[in-house]
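Thread: Pseudaminic acid synthase, structure

OP (GT): Posting the sequence first so everyone is looking at the same thing. Length is 350 residues per the record. Can we get the structure tokens written out before standup tomorrow? I want them in the notebook alongside the other entries.
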Amino acid sequence: MDNISIAGRCIGPEVPPFIIAEMSGNHNKSLARALEIVDAAKKTGAHALKLQTYTADTMTLEVIKEDFSIKGENSLWKGQHLYRLYQQAYTPWEWHKPIFDRCKELGIIGFSTPFDETAVDFLESLDVPCYKIASFENIDIPLIRKVASTGKPMIISTGMATVAELDEAVRTAKEAGCQNIILLKCTSTYPATPENTNILTIPHMKELFQCQVGLSDHTMGIGTAVASVALGATIIEKHFTLSREDGGVDAAFSMEPNEMKALVIESYRAWQSLGEINYGATNSEKSSLQFRRSLYVSNDMNKGDIFTKENLRVIRPGLGLAPKYYDVVIGKKVNQDVKKGTPVKWSLLG
């Protein structure tokens, strides 16, 4: 797959994974805290800090009805009404510029997920370098068309989407002017469990849609995310907070700074380990070849003595004949006196 450039940063299989720290509502209604999160994300080595751009009114209706309440037994937000939840979680639009300015100051890429067309227009006024489409919006074809019309790279989370729905989203984006598309395998539960993450979908999705694929990961820890790199993930997105103990709408499944730092390090190591298909000794292994096993004289022998199980052994180091010649050498005579510890060579045989 071709590399994609976002704000001068190359994204693709030939470079380490692009790590996105998702702030979401973890600012807890404090701009000062939001800026602290940017600072912390930079210190972890994350490459980008992402916001979500919406208001309660652009997300839903101010209606207190059962349809507009969260009923899932295992949901972190069970019993809450959508409008009130989004009022609590949203990032004030006037905070976006200072947050993005801090990102630029620190050399970390700042961008956002728009949830309606007004959010796209607003983010365009701030000249964001790319856009993210959330899983719940990957069926919002008008929104995808609007984002694609900017011509900027688009990252699309695929949670819940069927192959047909993803095909429609990708075709819409391309037809509307976006050629740089990255899909993120995503399980839209909060938190998600590893057994429901199905990251084997990553290479299949990559082949099916002929684009880069990454992971939007809501599992706890870093194991799933690191494993995704081995399957070709070029982007990893994780929710990020200063401390889960501080609470907040997304805190329970968000990473803390030490965890994000570990993800950056271990995903880089996973990428390094991919290498290429290789058999035989690598350059770094060549010095270890001498510690393979080979044939050695294990007792002093006089000229004319015959090799037996008592005076011929397969041991380390590997400076003698290969072990596969053991049966060939047994029964042969030596043509000279030989000391214990001598590597067996063809020149010793009479």
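GT: Both are above now. Quick notes for whoever picks this up: The chain has two domains: 12-54+90-274, 283-348. The chain is about 30% helix and 15% strand.
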